[in-house]
Amino acid sequence: MERRGGDHLASRAEGGRRKHMSRKTLAGKRVAITGGAHGIGRETALAFLAEGADIAIGDMDSGSVRALADHLVRIHGGTVVGLPLDVTDSLGFAGFLTCADRKLGGLDVVVNAADIVPTGGAFLAETEAEADRQIDVNLRAVITGTRLAAARFVEQGHGQIVNIGTAAGVPGALGIAVYTATRHGVVGLGAALDREFAEHGVTVSTVAAGAVCDTEAVADTVVACVARQLGGLITVRRPGAARGAAVREAARRLLGARTPALLG
Fold first, then answer.
1. Which of 57, 53, 50 is nearest to 82 (CA)?
2. Bridge-partner residues for 209, per DSSP?
């Protein structure tokens, strides 16, 4: 059993709060987001669009991702491209980035936001297939997306990669052992690669949600990382505390940090 992050945003919120807080700080940035039709990916797409970025969103739910792209254009204007994407298919993932690059006229940022979360239960009751699915989506696909994005960005001499982790990936959490293990992997991947690619002008960030995931706070933190080119591990602890200008101000104070930091 699995679930994806819930869609709690109403059209009223999409058209109101985000427009009100927007300063268009990322105008001209071209961003590709995986898992963009639901949960954190959807909220992240909305946050980037509100800040003036052009975005391409990919999701396995091809109908939803195209409908969302059309909806966001009607609400906000700008450039939004919805593309089908199975993150576990490496060739398809490469094709998604190529198509996003072509439609947006280049890529500056890739956000790996696709994930699945088990509905809970004992480790011994979880099937091998359920465990494999979590590893494939939550870790292996992040490695694939990071590798594909990094190859492009190293060649062009700049770029930002943001991977979505969770604070549960640091201390551990009951009932989600395999999920937690995958998030440990994402945190470790980001820590190593941010140092490895820094000399090439490529920043790698890992944004870790708290135990109670506030998708809006996570999305705002992702945008802050990109706006301030903040690398390393960034943990959002308190749901709802790290939003809008407060997040961006915290990012300013942490500019250049390569060690774990807390926003919120």
1. 57
2. 166
Tokens encoding 108: 């500056």
CA–CA distance, 219 with 43 (Å, rounded to integer)? 6
For the stretch 119-175, pLDDT in tens is 777 899 999 999 999 999 999 999 999 999 999 999 999 999 999 887 655 566 677
The Cα 177–Cα 3 span in angstroms is 16
Assess whether 179 carries a catalytic annotation.
Answer: yes
The number of folded domains in the chain is 1
Measured N-to-C along each axis, helices 141-156 and 177-197 cross at an angle, to the nearest 10 degrees, of: 10
Angle at 218 between CA 187 and CA 137, to 5 degrees: 50
Main-chain phi, psi angles of 25, to 5 degrees: -70, -15
Residue 1 within a domain:
no
Buried b (16+ CB within 10 A) or exposed e, 81-109: bbbbbbbeebeebbebbebbeeebeebbb
Sign of CA dihedral 129, 135, 137, 141: negative
Three-class secondary structure of residue 259 per DSSP:
coil
- Alpha carbon separation from 58 to 26, 39, 81, 83, 95 (Å, rounded): 20, 13, 8, 5, 11
CB-CB contact of 31 with 78 (8 Å) = no
Domain of residue 66, residue span: 24-263
Please state, in angstroms and rounded to a whole number, the distance separating the CA atoms of residues 22 and 147: 31
Q: Which of 93, 96, 153, 179 is catalytic?
A: 179
176 lies in some domain:
yes
The verdict on residue 39 lying in a domain is yes
Whether 144 contacts 87, CB under 8 Å: yes
Domain assignment of residue 163, yes or no: yes
pTM for the structure as a whole: 0.82
Q: Which CATH number belongs to the domain containing residue 41 in this structure?
A: 3.40.50.720
